[in-house]
Amino acid sequence: TGKVTLDPGFANTAACQSKITYIDGEAGILRYRGYPIEELAAHSSFLEVSYLVIHGELPDSGQLKEFSEQLRANAALPAEMRAMLDAFPRDAHPMTLLASAVNTMAAFYADTVDPKDSEQVDRATILLLAKLPTIAAHIYRNSVGQPPLEPDDSLGYVEDFLRMTFGGLSGESELDALFVRAMDLLLILHADHEQNCSTATVRVVGSSQASLYGSVSAGVNALFGPLHGGANQAVLEMLEEIRDLGGDVDSYLAKVKDKESKTRLMGFGHRVYKNYDPRSKEIKGLAAQILDRQAEPDELFELALRLEAKALADPYFTDRKLYPNVDFYSGVIYRAMGFPTSMFTVLFALGRLPGWIAHWREQRLDPAARIARPRQLYTGHAKRSYSGS
Ligand code: CMC
Protein backbone atom coordinates (compact mmCIF):
# COMPACT_ATOMS: atom_id res chain seq x y z
CA THR A 1 0.00 0.00 0.00
CA GLY A 2 1.05 3.63 -0.22
CA LYS A 3 2.28 5.57 -3.20
CA VAL A 4 3.19 3.52 -6.26
CA THR A 5 6.44 4.71 -7.86
CA LEU A 6 7.66 3.91 -11.34
CA ASP A 7 10.94 1.97 -11.26
CA PRO A 8 11.69 0.30 -14.62
CA GLY A 9 13.95 -2.71 -14.19
CA PHE A 10 13.58 -2.46 -10.38
CA ALA A 11 16.73 -0.34 -10.28
CA ASN A 12 15.84 1.24 -6.93
CA THR A 13 13.52 -1.33 -5.40
CA ALA A 14 14.71 -3.81 -2.77
CA ALA A 15 12.25 -6.70 -2.93
CA CYS A 16 13.73 -8.66 -0.03
CA GLN A 17 16.29 -8.75 2.75
CA SER A 18 19.11 -11.22 2.15
CA LYS A 19 22.15 -12.54 4.01
CA ILE A 20 23.76 -14.32 1.07
CA THR A 21 25.81 -11.92 -1.08
CA TYR A 22 27.17 -8.44 -0.52
CA ILE A 23 28.06 -6.17 -3.44
CA ASP A 24 29.50 -2.67 -3.33
CA GLY A 25 29.23 -1.65 -6.95
CA GLU A 26 31.09 1.64 -6.57
CA ALA A 27 34.08 -0.02 -4.91
CA GLY A 28 33.99 -3.24 -6.95
CA ILE A 29 33.51 -5.51 -3.92
CA LEU A 30 31.82 -8.92 -3.94
CA ARG A 31 31.47 -11.23 -0.93
CA TYR A 32 29.59 -14.50 -0.41
CA ARG A 33 28.35 -14.82 3.17
CA GLY A 34 30.96 -12.24 4.17
CA TYR A 35 33.94 -13.92 2.45
CA PRO A 36 35.67 -11.83 -0.25
CA ILE A 37 35.46 -13.45 -3.66
CA GLU A 38 39.25 -13.14 -4.10
CA GLU A 39 39.91 -15.28 -1.00
CA LEU A 40 37.41 -17.92 -2.06
CA ALA A 41 38.94 -17.95 -5.55
CA ALA A 42 42.43 -18.45 -4.11
CA HIS A 43 41.69 -21.07 -1.45
CA SER A 44 38.31 -22.69 -1.91
CA SER A 45 36.56 -25.17 -4.21
CA PHE A 46 33.23 -24.90 -6.00
CA LEU A 47 31.66 -27.55 -3.77
CA GLU A 48 32.80 -25.74 -0.65
CA VAL A 49 31.45 -22.46 -2.01
CA SER A 50 28.14 -24.10 -2.98
CA TYR A 51 27.74 -25.38 0.58
CA LEU A 52 28.67 -21.95 1.95
CA VAL A 53 26.23 -20.08 -0.26
CA ILE A 54 23.36 -22.50 0.45
CA HIS A 55 23.90 -23.20 4.16
CA GLY A 56 25.53 -19.96 5.30
CA GLU A 57 28.77 -21.37 6.72
CA LEU A 58 31.81 -23.09 5.25
CA PRO A 59 31.55 -26.87 5.72
CA ASP A 60 33.99 -28.66 8.04
CA SER A 61 35.87 -31.55 6.43
CA GLY A 62 33.23 -34.13 7.46
CA GLN A 63 30.37 -32.01 6.09
CA LEU A 64 32.23 -31.39 2.85
CA LYS A 65 32.94 -35.09 2.41
CA GLU A 66 29.31 -36.00 3.02
CA PHE A 67 28.08 -33.25 0.67
CA SER A 68 30.46 -34.38 -2.04
CA GLU A 69 29.48 -38.05 -1.62
CA GLN A 70 25.77 -37.20 -1.80
CA LEU A 71 26.33 -35.27 -5.02
CA ARG A 72 28.41 -37.97 -6.60
CA ALA A 73 25.98 -40.74 -5.56
CA ASN A 74 23.09 -38.91 -7.27
CA ALA A 75 24.83 -37.83 -10.47
CA ALA A 76 23.42 -40.53 -12.77
CA LEU A 77 20.25 -39.84 -14.77
CA PRO A 78 17.39 -42.34 -14.90
CA ALA A 79 17.02 -44.11 -18.27
CA GLU A 80 13.72 -42.30 -18.92
CA MET A 81 15.38 -38.94 -18.51
CA ARG A 82 18.22 -39.91 -20.84
CA ALA A 83 15.65 -41.09 -23.38
CA MET A 84 13.88 -37.74 -23.07
CA LEU A 85 17.12 -35.82 -23.68
CA ASP A 86 17.86 -38.07 -26.66
CA ALA A 87 14.45 -37.25 -28.14
CA PHE A 88 15.09 -33.49 -28.26
CA PRO A 89 16.24 -31.97 -31.57
CA ARG A 90 20.03 -32.29 -31.64
CA ASP A 91 20.57 -28.82 -33.08
CA ALA A 92 18.48 -27.03 -30.42
CA HIS A 93 20.24 -24.50 -28.21
CA PRO A 94 21.60 -26.28 -25.10
CA MET A 95 20.03 -23.65 -22.79
CA THR A 96 16.55 -24.44 -24.11
CA LEU A 97 17.15 -28.11 -23.41
CA LEU A 98 18.68 -27.43 -20.00
CA ALA A 99 15.66 -25.40 -18.86
CA SER A 100 13.32 -28.12 -20.13
CA ALA A 101 15.28 -30.90 -18.43
CA VAL A 102 15.33 -29.06 -15.09
CA ASN A 103 11.59 -28.49 -15.30
CA THR A 104 10.92 -32.19 -15.90
CA MET A 105 12.82 -33.10 -12.73
CA ALA A 106 9.55 -32.18 -10.99
CA ALA A 107 8.02 -35.09 -12.90
CA PHE A 108 10.87 -37.58 -12.45
CA TYR A 109 11.25 -36.72 -8.74
CA ALA A 110 7.64 -35.89 -7.89
CA ASP A 111 8.18 -36.84 -4.24
CA THR A 112 10.59 -33.89 -3.81
CA VAL A 113 8.47 -30.98 -5.10
CA ASP A 114 6.71 -29.75 -1.96
CA PRO A 115 8.22 -26.40 -0.87
CA LYS A 116 6.63 -26.75 2.58
CA ASP A 117 8.52 -29.97 3.36
CA SER A 118 12.13 -29.34 4.47
CA GLU A 119 13.24 -32.89 3.75
CA GLN A 120 11.90 -32.71 0.21
CA VAL A 121 13.61 -29.35 -0.28
CA ASP A 122 16.94 -30.77 0.94
CA ARG A 123 16.54 -33.72 -1.38
CA ALA A 124 15.68 -31.50 -4.36
CA THR A 125 18.74 -29.37 -3.57
CA ILE A 126 21.04 -32.38 -3.77
CA LEU A 127 19.35 -33.81 -6.87
CA LEU A 128 19.66 -30.53 -8.78
CA LEU A 129 23.30 -29.96 -7.87
CA ALA A 130 24.17 -33.60 -8.54
CA LYS A 131 22.45 -33.91 -11.90
CA LEU A 132 22.92 -30.55 -13.61
CA PRO A 133 26.49 -31.34 -14.81
CA THR A 134 25.36 -34.77 -16.07
CA ILE A 135 22.44 -33.19 -17.94
CA ALA A 136 24.69 -30.48 -19.40
CA ALA A 137 27.30 -33.00 -20.59
CA HIS A 138 24.56 -35.25 -22.04
CA ILE A 139 23.11 -32.34 -24.02
CA TYR A 140 26.57 -31.40 -25.29
CA ARG A 141 27.45 -34.95 -26.37
CA ASN A 142 24.18 -35.26 -28.27
CA SER A 143 24.78 -31.90 -29.96
CA VAL A 144 28.12 -33.11 -31.36
CA GLY A 145 26.84 -36.57 -32.28
CA GLN A 146 28.83 -38.46 -29.66
CA PRO A 147 27.33 -40.98 -27.23
CA PRO A 148 26.69 -39.45 -23.78
CA LEU A 149 28.84 -40.79 -20.95
CA GLU A 150 27.73 -41.99 -17.53
CA PRO A 151 29.12 -40.29 -14.42
CA ASP A 152 32.11 -41.85 -12.67
CA ASP A 153 31.59 -41.22 -8.97
CA SER A 154 35.24 -41.91 -8.15
CA LEU A 155 36.07 -38.54 -9.76
CA GLY A 156 35.54 -35.04 -8.37
CA TYR A 157 32.48 -32.99 -9.36
CA VAL A 158 34.21 -30.68 -11.82
CA GLU A 159 36.68 -33.23 -13.13
CA ASP A 160 33.88 -35.67 -13.90
CA PHE A 161 31.86 -32.97 -15.65
CA LEU A 162 34.80 -32.27 -17.97
CA ARG A 163 35.31 -36.01 -18.54
CA MET A 164 31.60 -36.57 -19.32
CA THR A 165 31.81 -33.64 -21.75
CA PHE A 166 35.09 -34.31 -23.54
CA GLY A 167 35.51 -38.02 -22.87
CA GLY A 168 39.25 -38.19 -23.19
CA LEU A 169 40.16 -36.18 -20.13
CA SER A 170 42.79 -38.13 -18.23
CA GLY A 171 43.24 -35.77 -15.31
CA GLU A 172 46.92 -36.57 -15.55
CA SER A 173 48.32 -34.03 -17.96
CA GLU A 174 49.27 -30.62 -16.64
CA LEU A 175 46.84 -28.92 -19.01
CA ASP A 176 43.96 -31.10 -17.86
CA ALA A 177 44.72 -30.27 -14.23
CA LEU A 178 44.81 -26.58 -15.13
CA PHE A 179 41.48 -26.87 -16.95
CA VAL A 180 39.87 -28.58 -13.96
CA ARG A 181 41.13 -25.83 -11.67
CA ALA A 182 40.06 -23.12 -14.15
CA MET A 183 36.58 -24.60 -14.50
CA ASP A 184 36.29 -24.85 -10.71
CA LEU A 185 37.37 -21.23 -10.33
CA LEU A 186 34.93 -20.00 -12.98
CA LEU A 187 32.09 -21.82 -11.24
CA ILE A 188 33.08 -20.22 -7.90
CA LEU A 189 33.05 -16.76 -9.50
CA HIS A 190 29.54 -17.33 -10.88
CA ALA A 191 28.04 -18.92 -7.74
CA ASP A 192 25.90 -15.98 -6.66
CA HIS A 193 25.30 -12.34 -7.46
CA GLU A 194 22.36 -11.27 -5.31
CA GLN A 195 19.26 -10.01 -7.14
CA ASN A 196 20.38 -10.40 -10.77
CA CYS A 197 17.72 -11.09 -13.39
CA SER A 198 17.73 -14.91 -13.14
CA THR A 199 17.90 -15.02 -9.33
CA ALA A 200 15.12 -12.45 -9.07
CA THR A 201 13.17 -14.69 -11.47
CA VAL A 202 13.75 -17.73 -9.27
CA ARG A 203 12.45 -15.74 -6.29
CA VAL A 204 9.42 -14.40 -8.16
CA VAL A 205 8.41 -17.87 -9.35
CA GLY A 206 9.18 -19.39 -5.94
CA SER A 207 7.11 -16.71 -4.20
CA SER A 208 3.96 -18.40 -5.48
CA GLN A 209 5.15 -21.60 -3.74
CA ALA A 210 6.10 -23.22 -7.03
CA SER A 211 8.61 -26.07 -6.75
CA LEU A 212 12.37 -25.55 -6.65
CA TYR A 213 12.66 -27.27 -10.05
CA GLY A 214 10.06 -25.00 -11.69
CA SER A 215 11.67 -21.92 -10.17
CA VAL A 216 15.22 -22.89 -11.24
CA SER A 217 13.98 -23.78 -14.73
CA ALA A 218 12.59 -20.24 -15.01
CA GLY A 219 15.96 -18.95 -13.80
CA VAL A 220 17.75 -20.87 -16.57
CA ASN A 221 15.48 -19.23 -19.14
CA ALA A 222 16.13 -15.77 -17.71
CA LEU A 223 19.86 -16.43 -17.79
CA PHE A 224 19.67 -17.39 -21.46
CA GLY A 225 19.02 -13.80 -22.61
CA PRO A 226 21.93 -11.91 -24.21
CA LEU A 227 21.73 -9.04 -21.71
CA HIS A 228 22.28 -11.52 -18.87
CA GLY A 229 24.16 -14.87 -19.02
CA GLY A 230 23.88 -15.07 -22.78
CA ALA A 231 26.41 -12.23 -22.89
CA ASN A 232 29.34 -14.65 -22.63
CA GLN A 233 28.29 -16.25 -25.92
CA ALA A 234 27.60 -12.82 -27.42
CA VAL A 235 31.11 -11.59 -26.46
CA LEU A 236 32.78 -14.42 -28.33
CA GLU A 237 30.57 -13.85 -31.37
CA MET A 238 31.45 -10.15 -31.23
CA LEU A 239 35.18 -10.91 -31.04
CA GLU A 240 34.89 -13.28 -34.00
CA GLU A 241 33.02 -10.63 -35.96
CA ILE A 242 35.75 -8.05 -35.26
CA ARG A 243 38.45 -10.56 -36.20
CA ASP A 244 36.67 -11.38 -39.47
CA LEU A 245 36.50 -7.66 -40.26
CA GLY A 246 40.28 -7.48 -40.02
CA GLY A 247 40.56 -6.77 -36.28
CA ASP A 248 39.54 -3.12 -36.57
CA VAL A 249 38.74 -2.33 -32.94
CA ASP A 250 38.32 1.41 -33.52
CA SER A 251 35.58 1.15 -36.09
CA TYR A 252 33.73 -1.38 -33.90
CA LEU A 253 33.85 1.02 -30.96
CA ALA A 254 32.64 3.83 -33.21
CA LYS A 255 29.65 1.66 -34.13
CA VAL A 256 28.94 0.96 -30.43
CA LYS A 257 29.03 4.68 -29.64
CA ASP A 258 26.59 5.43 -32.45
CA LYS A 259 23.27 4.87 -30.66
CA GLU A 260 21.51 4.44 -34.01
CA SER A 261 23.43 1.21 -34.59
CA LYS A 262 21.85 -0.36 -31.47
CA THR A 263 25.13 -2.21 -30.95
CA ARG A 264 26.46 -2.70 -27.43
CA LEU A 265 29.93 -3.62 -26.38
CA MET A 266 29.07 -7.06 -25.04
CA GLY A 267 30.71 -7.98 -21.75
CA PHE A 268 30.82 -4.33 -20.72
CA GLY A 269 28.63 -2.48 -18.27
CA HIS A 270 26.66 -3.57 -15.26
CA ARG A 271 23.58 -2.41 -13.38
CA VAL A 272 25.41 -2.50 -10.05
CA TYR A 273 29.17 -2.26 -10.76
CA LYS A 274 30.27 1.23 -11.65
CA ASN A 275 33.86 0.06 -11.38
CA TYR A 276 35.85 -2.97 -12.57
CA ASP A 277 33.81 -6.13 -11.90
CA PRO A 278 35.98 -8.03 -9.37
CA ARG A 279 35.09 -11.32 -11.07
CA SER A 280 36.38 -10.02 -14.37
CA LYS A 281 39.75 -9.21 -12.79
CA GLU A 282 40.13 -12.81 -11.61
CA ILE A 283 38.99 -14.23 -14.94
CA LYS A 284 41.33 -12.02 -16.96
CA GLY A 285 44.28 -13.31 -14.90
CA LEU A 286 43.15 -16.88 -15.41
CA ALA A 287 42.76 -16.37 -19.16
CA ALA A 288 46.31 -15.05 -19.40
CA GLN A 289 47.60 -18.07 -17.46
CA ILE A 290 45.78 -20.59 -19.65
CA LEU A 291 46.37 -18.99 -23.00
CA ASP A 292 50.08 -18.61 -22.22
CA ARG A 293 50.34 -22.39 -22.26
CA GLN A 294 49.03 -22.62 -25.79
CA ALA A 295 51.48 -23.04 -28.63
CA GLU A 296 50.00 -20.13 -30.59
CA PRO A 297 48.96 -16.75 -29.17
CA ASP A 298 45.16 -16.55 -28.88
CA GLU A 299 43.90 -14.06 -31.42
CA LEU A 300 40.56 -13.43 -29.72
CA PHE A 301 42.15 -12.88 -26.30
CA GLU A 302 44.57 -10.35 -27.83
CA LEU A 303 41.61 -8.66 -29.47
CA ALA A 304 39.70 -8.56 -26.18
CA LEU A 305 42.70 -6.97 -24.42
CA ARG A 306 42.94 -4.30 -27.12
CA LEU A 307 39.22 -3.66 -27.03
CA GLU A 308 39.28 -3.24 -23.24
CA ALA A 309 42.28 -0.88 -23.32
CA LYS A 310 40.69 1.31 -26.01
CA ALA A 311 37.29 1.37 -24.32
CA LEU A 312 38.75 2.30 -20.94
CA ALA A 313 40.57 5.22 -22.56
CA ASP A 314 37.38 6.49 -24.19
CA PRO A 315 35.11 9.04 -22.46
CA TYR A 316 31.98 7.30 -23.81
CA PHE A 317 32.76 4.34 -21.54
CA THR A 318 34.44 6.16 -18.64
CA ASP A 319 31.70 8.81 -18.38
CA ARG A 320 29.08 6.06 -18.14
CA LYS A 321 31.27 3.98 -15.83
CA LEU A 322 31.23 1.00 -18.19
CA TYR A 323 33.86 -1.60 -17.28
CA PRO A 324 34.40 -5.23 -18.28
CA ASN A 325 31.95 -7.54 -16.50
CA VAL A 326 32.14 -11.25 -15.65
CA ASP A 327 31.33 -12.26 -19.22
CA PHE A 328 34.07 -10.34 -21.00
CA TYR A 329 36.93 -12.82 -20.57
CA SER A 330 35.19 -16.06 -19.57
CA GLY A 331 34.39 -17.03 -23.17
CA VAL A 332 38.00 -17.07 -24.33
CA ILE A 333 38.80 -19.56 -21.55
CA TYR A 334 35.81 -21.79 -22.36
CA ARG A 335 36.87 -21.72 -25.99
CA ALA A 336 40.44 -22.70 -25.11
CA MET A 337 39.01 -25.64 -23.15
CA GLY A 338 37.14 -26.78 -26.25
CA PHE A 339 33.57 -25.70 -25.49
CA PRO A 340 31.47 -24.41 -28.42
CA THR A 341 29.96 -20.96 -27.84
CA SER A 342 26.47 -22.45 -27.44
CA MET A 343 27.63 -24.15 -24.20
CA PHE A 344 28.99 -21.00 -22.55
CA THR A 345 25.75 -19.96 -20.88
CA VAL A 346 25.18 -23.54 -19.72
CA LEU A 347 28.48 -23.24 -17.83
CA PHE A 348 27.22 -20.01 -16.26
CA ALA A 349 24.08 -21.91 -15.17
CA LEU A 350 26.16 -24.67 -13.54
CA GLY A 351 27.96 -22.00 -11.56
CA ARG A 352 24.86 -19.99 -10.64
CA LEU A 353 22.83 -23.00 -9.46
CA PRO A 354 23.87 -22.80 -5.76
CA GLY A 355 22.92 -19.11 -5.74
CA TRP A 356 19.46 -19.80 -7.20
CA ILE A 357 18.90 -22.57 -4.66
CA ALA A 358 20.16 -20.45 -1.75
CA HIS A 359 17.83 -17.54 -2.60
CA TRP A 360 14.83 -19.82 -3.09
CA ARG A 361 15.52 -21.45 0.29
CA GLU A 362 16.12 -18.13 2.03
CA GLN A 363 12.82 -16.78 0.74
CA ARG A 364 11.02 -19.95 1.80
CA LEU A 365 12.04 -19.36 5.43
CA ASP A 366 11.57 -15.58 5.37
CA PRO A 367 8.52 -14.62 7.45
CA ALA A 368 8.31 -11.30 5.58
CA ALA A 369 8.18 -12.99 2.14
CA ARG A 370 4.98 -12.44 0.17
CA ILE A 371 3.91 -13.39 -3.32
CA ALA A 372 5.77 -11.17 -5.81
CA ARG A 373 3.23 -8.88 -7.34
CA PRO A 374 4.58 -5.57 -8.70
CA ARG A 375 2.28 -2.65 -9.39
CA GLN A 376 2.08 -0.57 -12.56
CA LEU A 377 1.14 2.91 -13.72
CA TYR A 378 -1.67 2.54 -16.24
CA THR A 379 -1.17 4.63 -19.40
CA GLY A 380 -3.85 3.14 -21.67
CA HIS A 381 -7.25 4.42 -22.80
CA ALA A 382 -9.70 5.93 -20.37
CA LYS A 383 -13.07 4.17 -20.37
CA ARG A 384 -14.62 3.83 -23.83
CA SER A 385 -17.69 2.10 -25.04
CA TYR A 386 -17.88 -1.00 -27.27
CA SER A 387 -21.05 0.22 -28.88
CA GLY A 388 -19.44 3.50 -29.95
CA SER A 389 -20.82 6.99 -29.61
N1 CMC B 1 27.87 -0.84 -24.62
C1 CMC B 1 27.58 0.44 -24.97
N2 CMC B 1 26.85 1.26 -24.21
C2 CMC B 1 26.37 0.77 -23.06
C3 CMC B 1 26.64 -0.54 -22.63
C4 CMC B 1 27.43 -1.35 -23.48
N3 CMC B 1 27.72 -2.61 -23.13
N4 CMC B 1 26.05 -0.77 -21.44
C5 CMC B 1 25.43 0.37 -21.12
N5 CMC B 1 25.63 1.32 -22.09
C6 CMC B 1 25.16 2.71 -22.09
C7 CMC B 1 23.68 2.80 -22.41
O1 CMC B 1 23.49 2.94 -23.78
C8 CMC B 1 23.28 4.03 -21.63
O2 CMC B 1 23.74 5.15 -22.33
P1 CMC B 1 22.89 6.54 -22.32
O3 CMC B 1 22.91 6.98 -20.89
O4 CMC B 1 23.61 7.42 -23.26
O5 CMC B 1 21.51 6.18 -22.79
C9 CMC B 1 24.11 3.92 -20.35
O6 CMC B 1 25.28 3.19 -20.74
C10 CMC B 1 23.41 3.19 -19.21
O7 CMC B 1 22.99 1.92 -19.69
P2 CMC B 1 21.67 1.15 -19.24
O8 CMC B 1 21.18 0.32 -20.37
O9 CMC B 1 20.70 2.10 -18.61
O10 CMC B 1 22.25 0.20 -18.10
P3 CMC B 1 21.48 -1.01 -17.42
O11 CMC B 1 21.92 -1.01 -16.00
O12 CMC B 1 20.02 -0.98 -17.71
O13 CMC B 1 22.08 -2.29 -18.18
C11 CMC B 1 23.52 -4.04 -18.81
C12 CMC B 1 23.10 -3.08 -17.69
C13 CMC B 1 24.49 -5.06 -18.24
C14 CMC B 1 22.27 -4.80 -19.34
C15 CMC B 1 24.18 -3.24 -19.94
O14 CMC B 1 25.35 -2.61 -19.50
C16 CMC B 1 24.48 -4.09 -21.18
O15 CMC B 1 23.60 -4.26 -22.03
N6 CMC B 1 25.73 -4.65 -21.31
C17 CMC B 1 26.06 -5.53 -22.39
C18 CMC B 1 25.53 -6.93 -22.10
C19 CMC B 1 26.34 -7.62 -21.02
O16 CMC B 1 27.57 -7.64 -21.04
N7 CMC B 1 25.61 -8.26 -20.09
C20 CMC B 1 26.24 -9.00 -18.98
C21 CMC B 1 25.98 -8.36 -17.65
S1 CMC B 1 27.00 -9.00 -16.33
C22 CMC B 1 26.62 -10.63 -16.05
C23 CMC B 1 25.24 -11.07 -16.31
O17 CMC B 1 24.26 -10.49 -15.82
O18 CMC B 1 25.11 -12.08 -16.97
From TrEMBL:
This is Citrate synthase. It catalyses: oxaloacetate + acetyl-CoA + H2O = citrate + CoA + H(+). InterPro entries: Citrate_synth-like_lrg_a-sub, Citrate_synth-like_sm_a-sub, Citrate_synthase, Citrate_synthase_AS, Citrate_synthase_bac-typ, Citrate_synthase_sf, Citrate_synthase_typ-I. GO terms for biological process: tricarboxylic acid cycle. The active site is at 270, 327. CDD domains: EcCS_like (cd06114). Keywords: Acyltransferase, Transferase, Tricarboxylic acid cycle.
